[in-house]
Protein 1
Amino acid sequence: MPKSVITKIIKPALLATALLSPLSAWAHAILVKSQPAKDETITESPKQVDLWFNDAVRSEYKALAVIDASGKRVDNHDVEQSLTDGSHIHASVPTLAPGTYTVRYRVVSEDTHIVTGKFQFTVKP
Ligand SMILES: [Cu+2]
């Protein structure tokens, strides 16, 4: 086969592989659920804050902070990943006074990308 013919066949094949494989082989984590939920108003302080991603995240470098309206961090600095569900992380909080809180998180996806985000919830008895 002449070289130009081979190139014509291989180039599109390589391109297709390059376009498709990162998506199918590696997962980029996104937050899909939380408790309390984003913008939720709850009548009682939660005991912990739970986050669920669409796929398992790495155990390293995970962070979850709960910050009150004055900017003070109020969670117990004890973020953990569920042993049975790698997509689930949680951190405990002391009894939260009424007010609006911001949850900030950072995790590393299986594809090694760092995912950060934040959302708020309100405690209003
Ligand atoms: Cu990614």
Protein 2
Amino acid sequence: MTCCSYLFRKKGSSSSSTTRLPAVDIDISEIQNVNFYSYKELRIATEAFSPANKIGQGGFGSVYKGRLKNGSVAAIKVLSAESRQGVREFLTEIKVIASVDHENLVKLYGCCVEENHRILVYGYLENNSLAQTLLGHSSIQFSWHARRNICIGVARGLVYLHEEVRPHIIHRDIKASNVLLDTYLQPKISDFGLAKLISPNLTHITTHVAGTAGYLAPEYAIRNRVTRKSDVYSFGVLLLEIVSGRPNTNRRLPVQEQYLLTRTWNLYEKGELERLVDAFLDGDVNIEEAVRFSKIGLLCTQDSPQLRPAMSTVLKMLMGKKEVNEENMTKPGMIFEFVEAIDEEKQKGKAEVENTSSLLTGSGKQDDSSSSGIATSFATMTFTSIYDRSN
Ligand SMILES: Nc1ncnc2c1ncn2[C@@H]1O[C@H](COP(=O)(O)OP(=O)(O)O)[C@@H](O)[C@H]1O
Ligand SMILES: [Mg+2]
């Protein structure tokens, strides 16, 4: 494995022993637990980033499977050109990501910051993501026990990020494709801290909206307000997906069932939440627990962030150590309802869509307790961008 001295090597010269990067005056030795890989090593590991080794494509770039020099298998994430930040900003965030270590978080092995390249190297997870397995096509059968374990594991990882690690980390992109599974179906959250690796003048909200609008808390999507409670919202959506075995939005279903949150709320009001539970379980489920999990999902997705419980409370409720108080529970907040309301207006010719965009822009604010950082990049989302991609 290449050590950090790589960074300071001039082309063609052998490694030097300095531990400073003069151009940005960063003391690399401060960044512990991070391996610095050469571009060459990662190129070899992925067979020149060959399409055959590509395992995914997300909003931040492409992911390749590769074998590192030391023999370990890694997921190598090549950040896209637009995402490239300066070395200093990049390494500052890497330092934060590398400092966290938890059994329910994907391990960052290291990175490559050679020239314009910004590449992250993670531990490879055998069983892919929940999006591809539970919600996609795979032969894995998820028993209730496995699902329960996944929900609790993800909650644990989030409690750690939100409440234990200092400074706290808001994930900002909790969704089924960011929950990876190891050989034993133990869940590991990936991509924490990644939102902050993105150049502040890039509106990555558009990529969010492209695939994952259904996980976005309304205050985040509309007013760019990022707090730990926006992660709680996304977790609530994920929880309901795991219980029901279906994605949050499915346009192939009858209209009244297309949105998981609407369906869950309707069933809750009728006192029929057990109907939400995945039919694939074929009754082999602790139904009381599954209904309780669904109610927790509803608590997490309430419109008002203040009403949503903190992750540590969610974890206690999932584990049956705290009662689920559904008194005064309010309807889930959903951005697509907002979108549809405007759409109706548009149909009636009463509203100019572009004018509406001004409603949706605004200065970002962050939870005071969040890690200090940018909340600037998402303010340019327009109604049009939500609308176009929600189809
Ligand atoms: N550490 C990993 N181990 C195995 N597969 C991974 C890993 N990281 C990412 N992937 C795969 O690559 C895909 C793309 O990842 P990513 O770029 O994070 O986009 P997204 O999370 O939006 O799907 C993931 O959905 C997953 O299938
Ligand atoms: Mg991801």
